[in-house]
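> Could you send the Large ribosomal subunit protein uL29 prediction when you get a chance?

Sure thing. Input:
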Amino acid sequence: MALTKISDLEDLTLEEVEIKIQELKRQLFDLRFQQATRQAVKPHEFKHARHTLAQLMTLKHQRHSAGKSTAAVSTEE
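Output:
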């Protein structure tokens, strides 16, 4: 399975991004739990989940920053 590209995630709304972030955090928790209890875990799933989580958090931060900058411009005028 290939890593997710950020261009695939840019179409998501802010609410969908928030939901996916929560899902991935839960998935990482479950993977760590499975690893700790010696259940079969595919190690690459950690990498994929962390990678996608980082992309989503970056996207969220960019949108939040863009919202602040447009609000600052409109208040200055």
